[in-house]
Amino acid sequence: MTDTTLHSALIGASAQQVRSAIRSGSYSGHTAGLAAGKLQCNLAILPERYALDFLRFCQRNPKPCPVVGVSDSGDPYLPTLGQDIDIRTDVSKYRIFRDGALADEVEAIDALWADDLVTVALGCSFTFENALLRNDIPVRHIETGRNVPMYSSNIDLMPSGPFGGKMVVTMRPIPRHQIDQAREISARFPQAHGAPIAIGDPADVGISDLSQPDWGEAVEIKDGEVPVYWACGVTPQNVLLDAKLPLCITHSPGHMLIADVAEDAETTILQTQN
Fold first, then answer.
1. Distance spanning both ends of the chain, measured CA to CA
2. For residue 255, which of 72, 93, 102, 246 is within the disulfide window of CB 3.0 to 4.6 Å?
3. How many domains does the chain divide into?
């Protein structure tokens, strides 16, 4: 389907307006920079029999997998994140994995929905980017209209059941004099990966070439800037793929679920779910 709504036209739109454009099929692009101030979420949708092990895995690896919402089995709605969210249609692009292989990439999953599926929503770094921008810290991929660059790393994860592997990280070039501020700001958002996990030499986290991201798009690193790395919500996609589940569904990288709750509403979210 060809988009009839441009990303630029949705800047300043509410979370509900963005989801409406996605649900109608008029927008299927990335969500970086959209619905400023609202929580953006990574997704993992999997059969109920695997959900407990996966939730244990997330609890053991909170930096890349901060849980912000869990559905009831077979229920496509996430009322703790938004009263009208329908997980079958409200993400701009989904990935479908079967037996550990990418089977398809689609703009809706209503035809695949089943009574045993559980949705796990995980915090996304797009959330703290809004806070960086409010403090005049540049976010290069938003400035240039690109998807954030994402890389496989050499950082081991704590396993649970069939789930384990290596962390995926995002990279943002930050002016050297603003690194401490960027660290302090992002640390306020543990539900969105929190503070950076590394700064500087990409080899330290197992990246050989920053110009060749594994997902997303490369961005320029200007003079006086330093690459800064955060844990990434694509991590559970890799973990789910390696587990070779008969079926699992995720968002496509950069195509997040936008919630109605505020990006700093971690306490509210946890109290609502408990």
1. 40
2. 93
3. 2
